[in-house]
Amino acid sequence: MDTPQVISTVQRKYILDLLKQGKRMDGRGFLDFREVRIDDDLIPKAEGSASVHLGDSFIITGIKYDVGTPFPDSPDEGVATCMAEFIPFASPMFESGPPDVEAVEVARVVDRGIRHGDCIEYKKLCIKAGELVYILFIDMYVMNHAGNLIDTGAISSMTALLTTKLPTAKIEDGKAVWNGGYMLVPINQIPLSVTFGRIQDYVFVDPVIDEELVLDGRVSFAVNEKGQICSMQKSGEITWTEEELIKYSKIAVEKVNELRNKLNLRQYVPKL
Amino acid sequence: MTENNHEIREIVIPGEILTEDKSFIPGRGAIRQGDRIISIYIGLKEVRGKYINVVPLRGKYRPEIGDKVIGKIVDITSVKWRVDINAKDTGILKPRDAIDVYDKRSQRGRKKSSRELEAEAMKMYELGDMLIANVVSVDRVSDPVLTTVGESLGKIDEGTIIGIDVPKIPRIIGKKGSMIKLLKDLTTCRLFIAKNGLVWVKGATSEYEKLCIEAIRKIEREAHTTGLTDRINYYIQEKKKERGLK
Amino acid sequence: MTILIPEEYPKKLIDKNGKRLDGRALDELRPFSCKIGVLANADGSAYVEHGKNKIYAGVYGPREVHPRHLARPDRGIIRVDYRMTTFSVHERKSPAPNRREREISKIIEDALAPTLFLELYPNSAIEVYVQVIAADGGTRCASTTAASLALADAGLPLKSLVAAVAAGKADGEIILDLGDLEDKAGTADVPAAVRMIDEEFTLLQFDGEMTPEEFEKSIKLIKKGAREIFAKQTAAIKEKFDTVRKETEEENKKIEKLVPPEEKITHASGTKEEEKAGEEKSDKAEEIKEEKEDPSDTKEEEKKPKKEKEEKKSEENK
Predict the structure, then answer these.
(1) Taking CB atoms and an 8 Å cutoff, what residues of chain A touch C1?
(2) What are the tens digits of pLDDT across the range A24-72?
(3) What is the pLDDT of residues B201-235, one digit of tens each?
(4) Predicted local confidence at residue C261, as pLDDT
(5) Which of B28, B151, B221 sits opposite C285 (nearest CB)?
(6) C73 touching A (Cβ < 8 Å)
């Protein structure tokens, strides 16, 4: 049945032995990300879209919007929500059906990174305070699972958001009517994330699927351009010490800045 | 898919007409359709005497008696193991096929009951253990039965395992084992290529293992081309120079 | 509710010169391209762009059937799961599968089954997952075309590929390969899939109004379109391997220049003496065995015609 999820004892030993020598199975250093490949704006009917490969992990994200009523506690702010779906062809481990816990986790962690840390200027997504605001749907589809979907999802979501063009509206008879123009999603900060995998005392970034299957646990940090942490997620049945968490939060800020500079995602912002 | 430097074999697709000459007989990967012989795979067309074959380029492993396979223990009950052998059905390994226990005698000289021996044997493999096994029986109604009794069979306790396309195994072994020998000699790795498309690799260091795996990936990608042995030789030598490996 | 952007619905789908909205002739296909082996994990996969449709298909199997009661003891089953992404269409689609997706999954199953040797896989399933990333009218056809390629890429024995395309009626004319607007504003839509080995139909639906004469014309047009798509399917598969071949031929030339023939690696020729020496060096019994066993592969291939009998039989039984 779920045969791939039974962890191979020899594979775990192999990965652990390498870590002891300061090495990883694909030759990367402990703090190296895999190569990132980005294709932007590939879906004509989406307001924004991106296809992102992190190594062999592959996620396509599309942005759709709706015009709806704001939350009562933030009447002049728009809303953004993330969803992740694992397409069954992405891994022999996935089966068709409602999203499993892992997909929900990917969506939630990416969502928190975007929701906080001054990523989207929600006030600019308001059409009429208390009545009409933009609701953004950030929908991630996992096309191929080769490890570290959280970081892949974050890059993919942010790129898709940056490519997004929304039709602008005026109010006529209490309804939003197109005024002939378009706007970008107002993005102040680009949060990206870094995930640390851990086996015994060895901690490394961007675990590949073979590593992920034998991890004791992991912790993800989303960091914005100001160098502030805006989301965290610890998972796996292990514990982390205070010193470790402080150490890795600092490394996370460095790694995310490095990644963000390298990817230069603002290059994908379209001209209006 | 053995190497032949003088013949470039045509790539064909399912339904493609291989011949309309009635004197040919459809072999592996081909069927007769009226007066024609057609391919049933994406593969290489190959004429051997009266037979026309198509050697597929991808495909799942189908167990056959006598195959040496690499498997993973994915389930344990009190009387058997279930082994993932990269095939449609999981393999069955029973305690009496796991260890040669029936000749052993207890200290008192009493032959242990088979129940005792089975209980003892069941301790041999744990969930997730990888092993090399022999396929002892296959039929269409029940799961393939395995044994780990025999020379070089049993638990794998070091090295790494990668998956390859099953139809490309002959190419990775090469004519008379020439390719596997080249891989072993140049990368100094130990290799075991199991029939079910899993390859065990163990080198002196991970750099050699990585090089060996990269060379295998290159063979896989270029399996349908000619001059492969020379290219792989050149590739490994160059990479070794580049990476400062002996 | 989204902000309504008024779309100019043209009064006429075909102009006085017989050209369609996108400039196509009545019997002309939209741009079509495809690729196999696009997803790393799936047993087989394909990507199709047909017009502005963008579709991925991935295959697993044969594997165990879940839930178990769907398994058939006499033959395998094919299961297709056709899904659209939420952002593939203008108005965001709910992520939950709907009735339309279920129906299309079913008709694609029926379209592919006549190309498979399902009797080879009792108690097992071949699972095909189709994901429409971008939709532009005719997704069921493009999905069928993609799924057939993915099955072939998985190395499953197939009687034939299928190619699918719709014909239809707009402004009183019979047209090939309906675009989004023609689909919505036209008077009839006939999506179909053709098994290319014998040009028999494996998928057929009809929506609209047509005379039998017009239907006859449509079906002939579908066959013409399917042949054109099939030619592109064939070319895409062959090109994938030919590209690697060309690359390697370049490399071969380079190596030949660098290394005079007599200096070429001796063990590549694999003489008997060397093989023996190699065996003695080997530290593991299994490795020696492996080397001994494997040359037998050549023999095995000669034996193969017998082994493949079951496949042939199944064809004869048909």
Answers:
(1) 66-68, 176
(2) 999 999 999 999 999 998 999 999 999 999 999 999 999 999 999 999 9
(3) 999 999 999 999 999 999 999 999 999 999 999 99
(4) 56
(5) B151
(6) no
What is the structure's pLDDT at C317? 41
C83 plus C173 within the same structural domain? yes
* Interchain CB distance below 8 Å, A25 and B206: yes
Q: Which of A58, A63, A68 sits opposite C87 (nearest CB)?
A: A63
CA distance B69 to C31: 46
Out of C3, C59, C134, name the one closest to residue A176 (CB): C3
The pLDDT tens digits of the residues spanning B40-88 come to: 999 999 999 999 999 999 999 999 999 999 999 999 998 899 999 999 8
What is the tally of structural domains in chain C? 2
For the B68-156 domain, the top CATH level (class) is mainly beta
Rounded to whole angstroms, the Cα distance separating B161 from B86 reads 12
Query: Could you say which architecture CATH assigns to the domain B11-56?
Result: Beta Barrel (2.40)
Domain A15-267 = CATH 3.30.230.70: yes
Distance from CA of A91 to the nearest CA of B (A): 15
Choosing among B60, B61, B74, B85, which should be mutated to test the A contact, i.e. which has the most A CBs within 10 A?
Answer: B74
CATH number at residue C157: 3.30.230.70
- pLDDT above 60: residue A4: no
From chain B, which residues contact A within 8 Å (Cβ)? Answer: 72-74, 84, 90, 126-130, 156-161, 206-207, 210
The reported pLDDT for the residue numbered B109 is 54
Write the DSSP assignment of A240-261 as a string of letters: --HHHHHHHHHHHHHHHHHHHH
Å from C220 to nearest chain B CA?
Answer: 21
- Does the domain at residues B160-243 carry the CATH identifier 3.30.1370.10? yes
The letter for the amino acid at C255 is: I
Q: Is C180 on the interface with A (CB under 8 A)?
A: no
* Res. B96 pLDDT band, cuts 50 70 90: confident
Measure the CA–CA gap between B213 and B163, rounded to whole angstroms. 10
pLDDT at C303 over 80: no
Angle at A142 between CA A136 and CA A145, to 5 degrees: 150
Q: Inform me whether the C-beta atom of residue C216 falls under 8 Å from chain B C-beta atoms.
A: no
Here the tokens at position A184 are 């970008």
Task: Please state, in angstroms and rounded to a whole number, the distance separating the CA atoms of residues A232 and A219.
Answer: 7
Q: Of A149-158, A184-193, C299-308, which range is least confident? A: C299-308
Domains B11-56 and B68-156 share a fold: yes
**The pLDDT value given to residue A95:** 72
The answer to whether residue C252 sits within a structural domain is: no
The verdict on residue C223 lying in a domain is yes
Average pLDDT over every residue of C177-202: 94
pLDDT of residue B144: 95
Rg of the Cα trace of chain A?
A: 20
Q: What is the ipTM of this complex?
A: 0.93
Band (C62; pLDDT cuts 50, 70, 90): very high
What's the domain range around C196? 32-243
Please answer yes or no on whether A92 and C52 come within 8 Å at the CB atom: no
Is B230 part of the contact surface with chain C (CB cutoff 8 Å)? yes
Residue of C43, B37, C239, B209 lying closest to A144 (CA atoms): C43
SS3 state of residue A131: coil
The shortest CB-CB distance from A60 to any of C1, C41, C133 is to: C133
Domain boundaries, chain B: 11-56, 68-156, 160-243
Instruction: Please check whether residue C139 lies inside any domain of the structure.
Output: yes
Domain-wise residue ranges, chain A: 15-267
Rounded (10°) CA dihedral A55, A56, A59, A60: 100
Are residues C103 and C189 part of one domain?
yes
- Cα–Cα distance, B177 to B179 (Å, whole number): 6
